[in-house]
């Protein structure tokens, strides 16, 4: 499983920071990290709002472009060692320079340069706004995305707390990103139900949905996803760790696939959810009997849905 070539479309760069990395950086900067790690040394949270809080506290140790350069190298080396050949990472101007365009360019330059030093894996950036930070900050984030769109920044998305605000509040940000030629994706159908998925399709006009799994609760929506070729960035271990499903056996990924929905597989925030791409594959094999042909299929789906140029896409097939 480790050696199967994998494509990952949904990975939060800060969320991929191993606890040791965050502890080391905090130690070097003499920063205190309260309420981040449990007694075992792992990230410690009880529910989704708690997860977001720990995520933001851990991310606060990343204060300079060079911190992000180190993080990028560490994350890509780990992914590469799991067989990942292409990854799209969510990058947040909110954490990288507070949405100031010149500061954002410095962070981005550091991330891109670091990514180019890691052999065997290609990376693209999906700039992401954060739903619970509200539409005004999302507009500034979209401007950062639009100004830096190109060969490396190829997408725009929205993450954060799906219970807060409505997709229609973010139409301006998504229109701005679309006009800059960026591919579009939105987190929905993780904690929100089918209506939440429908709203990002209708209002934000995304071609991919982050998670999207709770669409399974509405057969008409499942049919629509299949008919329109909407690609789901499914993160099974994340959904189990955050309590969306009690265990992987109850996860709808196989039902979705069976009904013709284009599914892909990602880790989301791997150290937070105690997972790796190899472990995701192993679980899908164990629980749903996925074999080589299934894994080849999802890799092909991911290559087709990747926010990259045609030449890169062809090389991924
Ligand atoms: N969902 C929403 N927001 C996030 C996530 C997630 O899984 N990870 C990091 N930010
Ligand atoms: Zn996510």
Automatic annotation (TrEMBL):
It is an enzyme of class 3 (hydrolase). This is Adenosine deaminase. It comes from the Bacteria. Transmembrane segments: none annotated. Keywords: Hydrolase, Metal-binding, Zinc. NCBIfam families: aden_deam, PRK09358.1-3. It comes from Jannaschia ovalis. PANTHER family: ADENINE DEAMINASE. SUPFAM superfamilies: Metallo-dependent hydrolases. The lineage of its organism: Bacteria, Pseudomonadati, Pseudomonadota, Alphaproteobacteria, Rhodobacterales. GO terms for molecular function: hydrolase activity. Belongs to the metallo-dependent hydrolases superfamily. Adenosine and AMP deaminases family. Coiled coil: none annotated. Its EC number is 3.5.4.4. Residues 5-317 form the Adenosine deaminase domain. InterPro entries: A_deaminase_dom (IPR001365), Ado/ade_deaminase (IPR006330), Metal_Hydrolase (IPR032466). Its cofactor is Zn(2+).
């Amino acid at each position: 499983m480790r050696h199967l070539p994998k494509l990952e479309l949904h990975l939060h760069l800060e969320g991929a920071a191993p606890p040791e990395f965050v502890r080391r950086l905090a130690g070097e900067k003499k920063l205190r990290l309260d309420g981040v790690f449990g007694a075992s040394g792992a990230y410690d949270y009880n529910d989704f709002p708690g997860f977001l809080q720990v995520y933001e506290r851990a991310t606060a140790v990343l204060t300079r472009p060079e911190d992000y350069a180190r993080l990028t190298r560490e994350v890509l080396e780990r992914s590469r060692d799991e067989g990942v050949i292409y990854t799209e990472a969510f990058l947040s101007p909110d954490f990288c320079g507070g949405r100031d365009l010149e500061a954002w360019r410095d962070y981005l330059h550091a991330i891109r340069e670091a990514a180019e030093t890691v052999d065997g894996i290609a990376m693209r950036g999906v700039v992401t706004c954060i739903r619970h930070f509200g539409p005004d900050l999302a507009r500034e984030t979209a401007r950062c995305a639009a100004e830096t769109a190109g060969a490396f920044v190829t997408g725009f998305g929205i993450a954060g707390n799906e219970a807060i605000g409505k997709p229609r509040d973010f139409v301006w940000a998504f229109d701005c990103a679309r006009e800059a030629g960026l591919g579009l994706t939105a987190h929905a159908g993780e904690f929100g139900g089918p209506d939440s998925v429908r709203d990002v399709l209708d209002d934000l006009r995304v071609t991919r949905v982050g998670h999207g799994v709770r669409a399974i609760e509405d057969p008409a929506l499942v049919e629509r996803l299949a008919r329109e070729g909407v690609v789901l960035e499914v993160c099974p271990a994340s959904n189990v760790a955050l309590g969306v499903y009690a265990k992987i056996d109850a996860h709808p990924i196989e039902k979705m696939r069976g009904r013709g929905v284009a599914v892909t597989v990602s880790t989301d925030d791997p150290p937070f959810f105690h997972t790796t791409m190899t472990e995701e594959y192993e679980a899908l094999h164990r629980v749903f009997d996925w074999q080589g042909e299934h894994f080849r299929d999802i890799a092909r789906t991911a290559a087709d849905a990747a926010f990259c140029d045609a030449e890169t896409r062809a090389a991924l097939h």
